[in-house]
């Protein structure tokens, strides 16, 4: 469970506690976790299946939605089964390498989702402000390059943190009061100076998620400016309706994350289990609700889903 060197004890195995203070409620807490995960897997898999199998949905907006659904599956699968194993079987033991791997996949996927939401805002901007050039600007080749760039950006910015964590000597404690591993939550148990970890983590956050959020805000300012200068009321209504589902998902993605950061920074008197539950909402709610929102708001996906479950009788 641990190795010895010239500095003393070095932990190589950690134990995730789940939600400290609510151990006797873990079984009940696991029910919404399991239901949310099942909905996320089913809903996002259905969205991917519909988009990939229907040629009329091979448009930029739906292809970006397909990327988002794939990222949602990875994000929820990387975190929820671990939490359920803790709740059901008290199986919270995790090696350092596995903990770092979980952190790498979770954080890089979260940043990928942020990048996908940004290009979806760009897609809506092009569709509304330059409708005649939409198909010539957003070609399938460009969409492929955008997808590769999003994932490379996420992986390349997170990758150095692996080495920043591997250099640390974890000799303080090996009990992590969480359901999954994250960067600073793990680094704070090291005996080394972790200022480099803190500053690099802040740089990654500011250069990816925060920058994406600012660019999305600018995109929608330009979109709203263009919409309210349209002469036709029907055209304004149609333009706003096409952005409705995307705005809902943006709020769902960034809202819990911002609230969690604020409570961690200023909510020192808030019980620890509230912080942990909020952190889980960030990785649980978007994957579950995204396919529901798009299923309700997007007519083409709604019709295809209805055709699958309620085929017309001959």
Automatic annotation (TrEMBL):
GO CC, any one term: plasma membrane
Transmembrane annotation, as ranges: 27-52, 64-91, 103-122, 142-165, 198-227, 239-262, 274-294
Predominant location category: membrane
Membrane-related topology note: Multi-pass membrane protein
G-protein coupled receptors family 1 profile domain: residues covered: 43-294
Entry superkingdom: Eukaryota
Molecular function terms, GO-annotated: G protein-coupled receptor activity; olfactory receptor activity
Signal peptide bounds: none
Gene3D superfamilies: Rhodopsin 7-helix transmembrane proteins (1.20.1070.10)
Subcellular location: Cell membrane; Membrane
Key words, A-Z: Cell membrane, G-protein coupled receptor, Membrane, Olfaction, Receptor, Sensory transduction, Transducer, Transmembrane, Transmembrane helix
Physiological role: Odorant receptor. Putative odorant or sperm cell receptor.
Family: Belongs to the G-protein coupled receptor 1 family.
This protein's name: Olfactory receptor
Native source species: Capra hircus
Gene: LOC102175877
